Amino acid sequence: MGFSAHQMVELNQELIDFLEKKEFFELKLKTDKQVNDLLYYTQQKLAELWKSRPIWSLPDGLSSIPSKISRGNNHSGYPFQVFDYPSSFSQTDIFTFRVIVWYGRHFSCNLIASGIFLRYVEDRLPALANKNTRLLLDDNPWSNALLETHNLLIDKESITQATTFIKKNQSIRLFRLFSMNQINSIHRLTLECFNDWFSADLA
Question: Residues 88, 59: contact at Cβ < 8 Å?
Answer without folding.
Answer: yes
